[in-house]
Design goal:
Elements (H helix, E strand, L loop, with lengths): L15 H11 L2 E2 H12 L5 H13 L3 E6 L2 E6 L1 H29 L1
Antiparallel strand pairs: 1-3, 2-3
Helix pairs in contact: 1-4
Amino acid sequence: MEEKRRFVCCDMRGLLSFLILWLLSRKPMYGQEIAMEIAKRKGEKPTPGTLYPALKDLKKRGLIKVERKNRKTVYKLTDKGKHGIGKACEYFCTAFGEIFEEWRKQFK
């Protein structure tokens, strides 16, 4: 079993909405698929009580839309969501890019 990743210095929960939008920018997904992709990155799968309220909030804000395909609910980015994730990525690169570059040089 893969060892769970632990963030001892930082709480990464605040990035859930950003991560969901980024995943949906790659392709539409259903809820369980989103949860599995998050688990690959964070080492643990978000609970339904964490994931689905975040999805509901993103829908309410007009950043994602919901479509039913067979018995699955598929989440997709809206145009507003595409614009939003683009702006968020620009912000993260500006705010944190130097940190990641320096970390890569020092610790890799």
